[in-house]
Amino acid sequence: MSNIPNTTQPFGVLLGYAPGGVPAYSSDYDSASTTDYPKRSSYRSYIDGVYMGYKWQCVEFARRWMYINYGYIFDDVAMAYDIFDLRSVRHLASNNRLPLNAFRNGSKSHPVLGSLLIWQEGGEFEDTGHVAVVTEVKPNYIRIAEQNVGHGQWQEGQDYARELSAKTTADGEYWVKCSYGDAEILGWMTQTDDTRHAEPRPAKNTALSAIKSRHADASSAPRRSWLNMANNDEAAFVEMMGGHFLTTSAADQSRYFLLSKTAIDDLEYATNELHGLFMHATDYVLCHDDLLAKFNLPKAVLPKIRQSWDNRLNQLITSRFDFAQTADGLKVYEYNCDSASCYMEAGKVQGKWGQHYQLTDSEDAGKALFHDLSRAWEKSHAKGLVHILRDHDPEEEYHALFIQQTLEAAGIASKIIIQLEGLAWDKQGTIRDQDGDAVNWVWKTWSWETALDQIRAECEDDASHAVFEPQWSLGKPLRLSDVLLRKNIMVFEPLWTLIPSNKAILPVLWQLFPNHPLLLNSAFELTDELKTTGYVEKPIVGRCGANIALFDRDQQLLEATSGGFAQQEKIYQQFYPLPKVDKYYTQVCTFTASGVYAGSCVRVDTSMVINKNSDCMPLRYISDKAFLNDG
């Protein structure tokens, strides 16, 4: 039996108390009061200044229960199922690490009071998995306390949310039955020194982190044309490339790059975890004016950035991380939250390339991206016509058309606007297109910096412009900033993405999460430590690898790029070169949909710096066994 409470309570309503007097709350987000929870930071849960998680999710409850009862917490995780891979907790008072062991469902080491029951991703728990706290264990049932499964109050007098059936076998195995037929219980986590029957943490096989370069059999490609010219986005891509090509190199039309399934799993984990870290750092920056000043943003727009962040409806559709993947592990270079590129190459073109070359022994690393972006639109608050704004640029054309396809798949109507053609004020100050449709939701290929440049020019030196507000009058020409910063227009990607996309976030991350295995040492000033490792000098605002300089341990310049960002303030990041695969420096890019991993691609170049002209090439993956046996 499961005894799932079935009367939904509004968000934040007390549902019951778990052992130790730990309250559990309703997480019915649709009913959240904008008065009680007026901004994004209202959803962050803290005790004694220690971050517990997002209100009122399952991970937040499990961490809070541990802290209140035992004084320790497990590390931040991107998804609940990731807890099953942890092997320690941190005792806050002593800052000591204590062992946390994982036991597979069916283990002879039974759960105990305080164990964490962990569900795998999928089914009822979709992308995230689930975690609950064990409150009582009997041979034929187990009781658990939790948040974010049902939103009903617990029965009076009980200190648990649900009861699950269990079975103890004759040889002592303990099995817990999941109450959902499409979900799977991985097992339980217990803070104990006893490792009997515990799941080992597999030793890392560095060979599985390699990137291999391969060529498809050109004789298996029956024809030269392989993109569908009846689809506008594919036709625009073919026109820009001058044919049915993914790369500009004639000698590399059949080349692709290969990863192991473990490497793909590592990329997924890293992407999800890093998104959480960048969001934490964004909130931290917006709470500290001294740090925010380092981002070189117009003072007049800072209140609007904070408003954008505080509005919990202003969510991402897509974004991109750039990684160096080597045998020593993954390291992130930066996060492109604002006007990321290459999603059509990753989400459509490389898959069709694989079909063209009849590669049936490997998987397309971007096969889920289109579907996941469509789901992101379905879950977004863009319920009416979306206007897609782009410039006169071939790359922007096919990306705009690709996004239009994801909107269509989500059942959302859209129009593409080139620059601001056809947009104008009406008599009430509403922006309308040439057909008279109001502009309420916008997705753009332009970076926010383009609009900010207008604001810098117009009002940064004018003390009267404490907050930038678009000004309108009939017949007055529209500016990009008038559209993107209009109060009643929701823009994807939102204005707050200026913070995590700015390179100034990198030293903040290193300050908040020093020596994190996915991060590179970064600072606002050139430190002795960075000199000893070699370093990269980056403008805090830049695009496409512009104005980057690489220095080795002897502070000798290895390579530098030019561009239009030379006047920007700089940050310094540890030199961590891209792996060179055959003749190419190879960067792995991962994409998110609504902040969750959705696919991968590679960018390559003979230069050490990936730039606007660097090629995308197909990225595929195979099983670990096949990868290790691949010569």
Précis, in short:
The protein is an alpha+beta fold and 631 residues long. Helix content is 23%, strand content 26%.
Description:
There is one protein chain. The chain is an alpha+beta fold and about 625 residues long. It is built from 14 helices and 35 strands. Strands 8-14-9-10-11-12-13 form a 7-stranded antiparallel β-sheet, covered by helices on one side. Strands 17, 18, 31, 32, 33 and 34 form a 6-stranded antiparallel β-sheet that branches. A hairpin with a 2-residue loop joins strand 3 (about 45) and strand 4. The model has no long low-confidence stretch (mean pLDDT about 90).
Based on helices, strands and strand pairing, what is the structural class?
alpha+beta
Uncertain ranges: none
- The rounded distance between the terminal residues' Cα atoms is 52 Å
Give the helix proportion (percent range).
Answer: 10-25%
β-sheet strand percentage: 25-35%
Q: Which geometry do the CA atoms define?
A: globular
Query: How would you state the average pLDDT, rounded?
Result: 90
Largest sheet: 7 strands, antiparallel
Number of helices: 14
Alpha-carbon Rg, integer = 26 Å
Number of strands: 35
Strand order across the biggest sheet? 8-14-9-10-11-12-13
